[in-house]
Design goal:
about 150 residues; 2 domains; 6 helices; about 65% helix
């Protein structure tokens, strides 16, 4: 490299596109084969397109065994994280199967989304979330586990 500049942003974009495309090619046909409608098939595909554990471990293996450089490792790990976050955001924003959610959760989600930019409602959405006991973890108390004999 004559300029001494790193090509990490380019590598990141290339790795990210290849990783997401490979997951789409592998998961989408299976969801359609099981009869999922278009929206649900794409939602499932995008949520199944993560691979954080394998991507991170294989990148670390490559770095520790001298197969890739520190810059390549950084680009790979960034792409792995991006390939988990970006499809999840897209899936929830565009393909969320709202018809499967109970009506009250859809209304609460819509109100929460409307309140996000600056909490123009004075935090009412946050208060509403706190007031919903069905979303709070239930106290289980002492649990008796069977003892193998």
């Amino acid at each position: 490299m004559a300029t001494g500049r790193s090509h990490t942003p380019t590598a990141f974009i290339v790795f990210l596109v290849v990783k997401i495309a490979a997951k789409l090619i592998g998961v989408y046909p299976v969801t359609k084969a099981f009869g999922s409608p278009q929206t649900e098939a794409m939602y499932t595909t995008l949520l199944m397109s993560t691979g954080l554990t394998f991507g991170t471990i294989s990148s670390l293996y490559g770095l520790s065994h001298g197969i890739i450089t520190q810059g390549q490792y950084s680009a790979l790990v960034a792409a792995v994280i991006g390939s988990a976050v970006i499809p999840t955001l897209i899936a929830n924003a565009i393909y969320l199967p709202r018809h499967l959610l109970p009506k009250r959760e859809v209304e609460a989600a819509a109100a929460d989304l409307a309140a996000l930019p600056g909490e123009a409602d004075g935090g009412a959405a946050r208060k509403r979330r706190r007031a919903r006991p069905d979303l709070e973890p239930a106290s289980m108390g002492p649990v008796a586990l069977p003892i193998a004999r």
